């Protein structure tokens, strides 16, 4: 019996050895496959122009083991444009590692979902991939050089990270989250990424392989685009984005600027809690309440040692001014949700739950009486 087991062992070993020394384990297939890190979508007349940023392996003796290249394809649909990349480059794009989809200005002028539908249908695309818009062309955006990362997609993923979200300065959204907003009549919003050229003397020029200088850019996503029924309807300013981020996200600490008696302060807003109450009378009334803790981060005036030792305490007049400023920003957000019909507060869903028979169609947000209450306190 022992000899039989030994025979089986050597037969199994020989069988595995044959596969180990003869199979390339998909190396050829890998060489024919392009790993897509990010996709840019632009409108090209009635069709689409798709730009894919690919990770290209390099020889080990070179300085970098991985580089990136941007390739484009044109088609009547996004799927056809991606197929065109395969036919012109010989690489078959795989989207399993695609974590970023960027929509150029031309792609959001019409029905935005027409450019995104392919990514929802494709089971290989992760539903946590980030979606954003950019100023100008998505093709030029993906081709931009940046000093903060080897590839533009990595740099964008950093500014749209969970840490940035918890600071309140950006409102990143995934494919899954945007699709939920789209199909539940909330409308949806997307961060707007803006390229900012570095100042001279800060390493703003990079020399390429041909010896020519290339401009390097930093990226900013503090503005937000608003959508309703698949159309772009407006934008939120950086301050409005910050305020909405404080209200919607579990911010760790958000730096909120306040001016009181000519002195500028930066308060750290944290542990923010937002609640909505709905009442029905002749008109539906919605009260928005925000409560949070505030600490002193900095100011543009000199202080005594005693004042600095109480670094976290915020004086009552400054707290009052901060409450007024946040209330003003929330009121501006209410004006935007009415004007654009983008329900980023989720008011329609709240009304549906409490008053199911209420018609929440187009223009419903203009029929609501809003009130705002903001309460800040020292920790």
Describe this structure in words.
With 379 residues, the chain is an alpha/beta fold. Helix content is 32%, strand content 34%. It contains 12 helices and 16 strands. It has helices spanning 2-22, 27-31, 78-89, 113-121, 138-142, 152-159, 162-166, 175-183, 238-248, 305-309, 316-340, 347-354; strands at residues 33-44, 47-57, 66-75, 92-94, 100-103, 130-134, 173-174, 189-197, 205-207, 213-215, 217-228, 231-236, 254-260, 263-280, 284-299, 369-377. Strands 1, 2, 3, 4, 5, 6, 7, 8, 11 and 12 form a 10-stranded mixed sheet that branches. Strands 13-14-15-16 form a 4-stranded mixed sheet, sandwiched between helices. The protein has a two-stranded antiparallel sheet with strand order 9-10. A hairpin with a 2-residue loop joins strand 11 and strand 12 (231-236). Helix 9 (238-248) packs across helix 11. 32% of the residues are buried.
């Amino acid at each position: 019996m022992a000899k039989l087991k030994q025979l089986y062992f050597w037969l199994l070993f020989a069988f595995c050895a044959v596969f180990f020394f003869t199979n390339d384990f998909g190396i050829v297939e890998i060489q024919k496959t392009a790993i897509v890190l990010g996709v840019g979508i632009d409108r090209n007349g009635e069709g689409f122009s798709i730009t894919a940023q690919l990770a290209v392996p390099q020889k080990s003796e070179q300085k970098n083991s991985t580089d990136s290249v941007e390739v484009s394809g044109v088609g009547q649909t996004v799927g056809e444009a991606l197929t065109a990349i395969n036919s012109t480059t010989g690489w078959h794009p795989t989207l399993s590692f695609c974590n970023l989809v960027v929509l150029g200005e031309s792609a959001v002028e019409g029905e935005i979902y027409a450019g995104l539908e392919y990514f929802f249908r494709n089971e290989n695309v992760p539903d946590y991939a980030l979606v954003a818009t950019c100023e100008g062309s998505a093709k030029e955006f993906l081709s931009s050089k940046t000093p903060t990362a080897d590839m533009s997609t990595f740099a964008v993923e950093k500014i749209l990270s969970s840490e940035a979200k918890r600071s309140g300065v950006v409102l990143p959204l995934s494919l899954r989250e945007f699709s939920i907003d789209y199909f539940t009549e909330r409308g949806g919003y997307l961060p707007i990424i803006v390229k900012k050229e570095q100042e001279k003397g800060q390493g703003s020029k990079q020399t390429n392989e041909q010896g020519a200088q290339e401009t390097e850019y930093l990226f900013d996503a503090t503005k937000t685009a608003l959508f309703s029924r698949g159309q772009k309807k407006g934008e939120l300013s950086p301050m409005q984005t910050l305020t909405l981020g404080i209200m919607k996200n579990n911010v760790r600490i958000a730096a909120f600027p306040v001016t009181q008696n000519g002195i500028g302060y930066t308060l750290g807003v944290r542990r923010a809690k937002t609640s909505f109450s709905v009442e029905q009378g002749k008109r539906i009334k919605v009260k928005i309440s925000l409560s949070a803790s505030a600490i002193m981060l900095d100011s543009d005036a000199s202080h005594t040692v005693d004042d600095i030792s109480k670094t976290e305490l915020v004086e009552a007049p400054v707290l009052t001014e901060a409450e007024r400023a946040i209330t003003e920003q929330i009121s501006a957000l209410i004006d935007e949700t009415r004007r654009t019909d983008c329900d980023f507060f989720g008011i329609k869903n709240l009304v549906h739950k409490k008053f199911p028979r209420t018609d929440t169609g187009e223009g419903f947000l203009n029929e609501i009486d809003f009130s705002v209450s903001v309460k800040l306190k020292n920790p």
